[in-house]
């Protein structure tokens, strides 16, 4: 039994990505640029889709939600890191730490589930094209987006409630640039077995299961594409899926390494590198990945820019 007179830490010290002042200056400039690109890129995607009636389809509805989630995920972690570098203060209060963790898991779960939902949308579009409009009805699209929002809210809240019962009586230095669950559990001086079991269960539900569903969808998609008689038709079908597969590889390749690999092969450096990928790099790249090879979306973005230029002149 844990002693009753233990006192928990009132704040944590985020050690960040580097302790060298010269490197931190470079990191500040780099992450500031990345964050600006992330904000502008994802907001442009949302505005282009919402303002162009030709893009009011299930695929772009899901993409707009993914852009919103990517924007929020990056906003939850990157600005705090930039502020810490700028003011040379690496502390974060315990309530702020839990709040940041809540929204990180909330938007991280949403990201994972939405990527799987988009894979299902491509599966229906390619494997059942004649029934696509009937299957992907507005009601189903609403459920496929609204359901994950509710699910993410509940799961993230449980994470925080379990974390709130832990006591941190030793070192309060967190070898990370934001309050992530796994490094925090290592700092606790109370039993974290329930938290770790819940982490594995949630990782199975929101990382492993969607990833397996995506792989199964793309096996069916590839089989369907190979049956297309014309080379042009096959090329077009592969082109619509390639951007989504790039996002799948970026996101799941890093999250699986952090939350599903054995702790014996994980290090603080690897965890931070993976975290940079799915909190900063992936949200920044998604607008480029989805727009560069998408003629309709590029057209929507041109219309949006031309409309703004015309209205300002």
Key terms:
single chain, 313 residues, mainly alpha, three-stranded mixed sheet, 3 strands, globular, disordered N terminus
Write a structural description:
With 313 residues, the protein is an all-alpha fold. The chain is 76% helix and 3% strand. The protein has a three-stranded mixed β-sheet. It is a multi-pass membrane protein.
Order of helices and strands: EHHEHHHEHHHHH
Low-pLDDT segments, ≥5 res: 1-5
Main beta sheet? 3 strands, mixed
What structural class results from the helix and strand content?
mainly alpha
Tell me, briefly, the overall form: globular
Distance separating the two termini: 72 Å
Helix/strand layout:
Blueprint: E1 11-14, H1 21-51, H2 58-87, E2 91-93, H3 94-127, H4 132-135, H5 138-164, E3 173-174, H6 181-187, H7 193-226, H8 231-259, H9 268-292, H10 295-312
Parallel strand pairs: 1-3
Antiparallel strand pairs: 1-2
Helix pairs in contact: 1-2, 1-9, 1-10, 2-3, 2-9, 3-5, 3-7, 3-8, 5-7, 7-8, 8-9
Subcellular location: Cell membrane
Domain G-protein coupled receptors family 1 profile: 41-290
Pfam family, one: 7tm_4
Would you summarize the structure shown here?
The chain is mainly α.
